[in-house]
TrEMBL record:
Protein name: Protein FAR1-RELATED SEQUENCE 5-like
Highest taxon of source: Eukaryota
InterPro entries (alphabetical): FAR1_DNA_bnd_dom (IPR004330), MULE_transposase_dom (IPR018289)
Protein's gene: LOC113711510
Domain FAR1: 26-114
Pfam families hit by this protein: FAR1 (PF03101), MULE (PF10551)
Domain called MULE transposase: residue spans: 236-329
Amino acid sequence: MDCSKLAENRTPELGMKFNSEEDAYKFYNKYAFKMGFSVCKDYLNKDKDGVTTSRRYSCCKEGVKRKYECDVMPKRTRAPTKTGCGAKMVIVLFRGTMKYCVHDLVLEHNHELHIAQYAHMMPSQRKVSVAQGFQAEISEDAGLSLKQSHDLMGTEAGGMGNVGYTRDDLKRYLRTRRERSLKYGEAGSMLNYFQEQTLENPSFFHAVQLDCEEQITNIFWADAGMLIDYNFFGDVVTFDTTYKTNKEYRPLGVFVGFNQHRQIVIFDAALMYDETIDSFKWVFGTFLEAMCGKHPNTILTDQDHAMAAALSIVMPETFHGLCTFHIRRNFMKHLGNHYKENSDLPYMFGACMYEFEEVEQFNRVWEAMVKKHNLENNEWLSGLYRIRDKWARCMMKERWTAGMRSTQLSESLNAAIKNHLKLDHDLVQFFRHFNRVVDEKRHNELIAEYEMRQKLPMVGLRQTPMLVHASETYSPIVFVAFQNEYGESTAMVMLRQQDAAMFVEFAVMRYDGGPERTVVFNRNDLSVRYSCKKYENEGILCGHALKVFDTVGIKIIPPEYIKRRWTKRVRAGDCFDRRGQEVVADPKVMISTRYRELAPAMIKIATRAAMSEDTSKVAITVISDLSKRVELLLSESEEQPLQNQKNLNMEERDKIEIVSESEPTSVSFEEYMFMGCYSSTDSVSVHRLANQGPPASVPTEWMHPRISIFSKHNSVRDVLMEERGAISTHCDVDAYHGRNNTQGLQLRVDVASPENEVDE
């Protein structure tokens, strides 16, 4: 019997038959809702085949509360709800018809029944449906609180009574979801998450470092979008660590830069065990490995000594600059006792850091400051002076920094991350919410790209060819900076000019005073050399050079003075990952496009169909049929690649058998597969991968000091081997061919090489 076909006033009767146990429960629960009591699933009996032979459904107030038998009474006790109600319905399976029949029935209750206004609050009437659960998961991923999510669904349903569950039910559902996501423990779930990301996009990179006890120490990851961003904007990088983003209080290190709109872009991130030299070595080494060995020109950090030591070893060719914000803060910390009313100490120090462009002037003011305030023996200030090439403007003016002098981008990102993350988040939640921050930054770039194409640049002098050329070339924010420099050039005057055979030297100064600049113009290649070095440091020409170009008749920006990273079309071009494959930021972009086309139409149909019960039933039937057809088409499309792969595997086996006849020493099929016969998108199990040493691209001396050889039994591998078919990792098998067995592994668990390989 289909309970949906029962009359609204139908009551249970002895001998009533049902096709299944579920039909019997739905009917009795529907009757309970009409009457005003909640149903409790009581005992059941099953045969040896697991088929339910009998079951009893009773009122939730059946039985009595058990008395507390201990000597000490608890401070809080729950109010009793049991009244010993005997209402019940017992069903029994008849073997001849394989239908369930009502064998015993009691309809009378010994308590007051609920009224219809709050009957939806009864436990048996509350359930989080599949659609509601999916919506709740989306709300949680979007950062909505439990109350906000429940209120939103209540508003959509037309009132809390129409939702079908309470806030506590939603809380239990989300908790169960989190427990289910941690089925393999935090370590296994994290690697499973990485594997899912890799399957979605093969360019996803991750690496994990283990200690001698098989405990995870450092975690590194970068998605395809991060690899693309680094390819175009990885010339200047800032790196900083922050705490209080996860429940283990592990420091989070993020590599950050900015794009052509001077907005934050995230290159990759690492959860670190500690902030030691060895940990930083591993992080920086893995960073280079993920970025195909491409070093940044400049990296800015705070004054952490461990970080500086690791950078000098891993990236010796990269210029290491110090964050001026951290230096000023440390200046206040170490020299705060020297501050007096109307003291010029902070102003002199600030001038040395930001203003002076000549080394002689810097040294002269520094010596005067030290002598005036009796700081000759201050160790911190003396140490800062020894590394002045990392922070003083006069020392850094020829270094390419894209105009960055601090890790303020990292500090801003850390603040945004802490707005989305909580201390009680597990690792899987951490990655999910961290991706929200990344998506938010990428969306900001899309907004800037839209406005760049939508709004015309505000050109001050529309008849000036150079400004028109700059407005067509540069991004809006860089064009504003260039236009300001061009405005400065109109206030410049030529003091003198010295001609030579090939070079012309100009002395340029503002009409109202200021420092005198020297600009040398080359007649052959139309290039300029100037003392302020603004182009070398920030990537745009200074007003002095623009004045000279205007004087000699050059009316557009020479191509060699246009930094591509500041142009509108900086992202034109391809990006390739470590395997030489083109990186695609979003392989599912077509899926998103089709979803945007389908979703409004489906919502419109659902809205119209909900107006009446008849149209709602028709819509449910049509959608059910449509869902079945879609699933059928998807299953057919998924079976075809599997069949093609199976045929390919058989062909490879045949090839190996042919080789084996002519080469007695040929390898087995499994070894042949691992040695490079398959494409780089194929998977090998973690068990096989864990028996290999560290990749050659990360030297052994960069490993954590706690790393040692592993035993046959280790915690992480045992967890992963339980689901070795589901949790796997990728190996760069194309690059592996012809190498030693300890090379070529890209997505790996980093462990020290064993003395003797463990047998599989």
